[in-house]
Write a structure and sequence with these properties.
Elements: H1 14-22, H2 27-31, E1 40-44, H3 49-60, E2 64-69, H4 72-83, E3 89-93, H5 99-113, E4 118-121, H6 136-163, E5 170-174, H7 187-207, E6 213-217, E7 221-222, H8 226-233, E8 247-248, H9 250-262, E9 267-268, H10 272-283, H11 285-305
Parallel strand pairs: 1-2, 1-4, 2-3, 4-5, 5-6, 6-9, 7-8
Bound molecules: NADP nicotinamide-adenine-dinucleotide phosphate (NAP).
Residues 44-51, 69-71, 74, 95-97, 122-126, 145, 174, 176, 219, 221-222, 224-226, 229 line the site of NADP nicotinamide-adenine-dinucleotide phosphate (NAP).
Length: 306
């Protein structure tokens, strides 16, 4: 049964009552801003970048945070920064590709924070490399982390989110604006992001009657360690960083994620013009193919000239 939070106002309308009877939040309730104070969020890939910035932004909103990643030193620093804001901070060292480690994290986080409201499956990486130049093992590793890792986190956390009294019941996935397009040098990475987006879209419908919200996050280029990692794992001439105009800070992404926690929405595009551009790219595939090829040819010529 769906239990509504004590911080939500009673809903007098007949629309609200009929939705309550069906066991899911009404339209009126979905439009209401949710109070995040003393709620909890579990974030994978929180040792740097978007995950860390989101942990901080959530702590500023009064949430207690559990963070998971592989680098302990970075996690310890992030947890200290979160707890300095006056909220509970918990961390767990592990790999999202390992379902056993993910289960252990969620169990420990729920016990440490006392409840599970929100889960952000954020851990992921890319590699700047043409699709056919990637070895099978490299392709599998990327899917293991970005796609299976997302499923591992959401699958393990859902039972805790469902049984938390007055819980926010919100699952989020950090996909990308590349869920809609495969630029050269990022074909396999884009495929993992499209897979996350499709899974989130399906889960949104599958879990709606249980009162669970599912949101996908679609950042454009964000100033994090992402491009460093993608460059190190990739081939030298394949690096195609977005133009400066399409770069944003991780804090901007985090701010939009917190807004989505207050008022759940299906998709979060921290740079709204990117949503429009992605839509147009789908409607006009010839223009998109021309633009992507032009960018790639220029990049290759520049690389050869070096
Ligand atoms: N930056 C961008 O331009 C951009 C744009 C769109 C979408 N995204 C997506 O945003 C998410 C976060 O990336 P970011 O930009 O914040 O880059 P980042 O600074 O490199 O952060 C990636 C995070 O994921 C963690 N991680 C990587 N592999 C992991 C694994 N196997 N198990 C557990 N944790 C793992 C990393 O921590 P450890 O190394 O300590 O494990 C780190 O905390 C990714 O899913 C990425 O695809 C990024």
């Amino acid at each position: 049964m769906l239990v509504f939070g004590s911080d939500l106002h009673p809903l007098p309308s007949t629309l609200a009552r009929s939705d309550l009877a069906r066991g899911r939040p009404s339209y009126a309730e979905r439009r209401m801003k949710r109070n995040l104070k003393d709620k909890t969020i579990l974030i994978s890939g929180a040792s740097s970048g978007i995950g860390r910035a989101t942990a901080m932004a959530c702590a500023r909103a009064g949430m207690h945070v559990s963070m998971m990643a592989r680098r302990e030193t970075k996690l310890r620093e992030a947890a200290a920064a979160v707890s300095a804001l006056g909220t509970k901070a918990h961390y767990f060292v592990g790999n999202v590709a390992d379902p056993g480690a993910v289960k252990a994290w969620i169990e420990e986080a729920d016990a440490a924070l006392g409840r599970t409201d929100v889960v952000l499956a954020n851990a992921g990486y890319g590699a700047s490399i043409p699709a056919l130049d990637m070895t099978d093992a490299d392709v599998r590793s990327m899917f293991e982390v970005n796609v299976h890792g997302t499923l591992n986190v959401l699958r393990a956390a859902l039972p805790y989110a469902m049984t938390t009294q007055g819980g926010l019941k919100h699952l989020l996935v950090t996909s990308s604006c590349l869920s809609e397009m495969g630029p050269p040098g990022a074909g396999v990475y884009s495929a993992t992001k499209a897979a996350q987006d499709s899974m989130a879209q399906a889960m949104r419908a599958e879990l709606a009657s249980e009162g669970v919200s599912v949101s996908s996050i679609h950042p454009v280029g964000t100033k994090t360690e992402f491009f460093e990692v993608a460059g190190e794992l990739g081939t030298p001439g394949a690096r195609l960083d977005p133009p400066k105009i399409l770069m944003q800070s991780p804090d901007r992404v985090a701010k939009r994620i917190v807004a989505c926690l207050r008022r759940p929405r299906p998709e979060v595009w921290p740079m709204r013009t990117a949503r429009l551009a992605a839509g147009l790219a789908t409607v006009f595939p010839r223009v998109t193919a021309w633009g992507l090829q032009r960018g790639w040819d220029k990049q290759q010529a520049k690389h050869k000239a070096r």
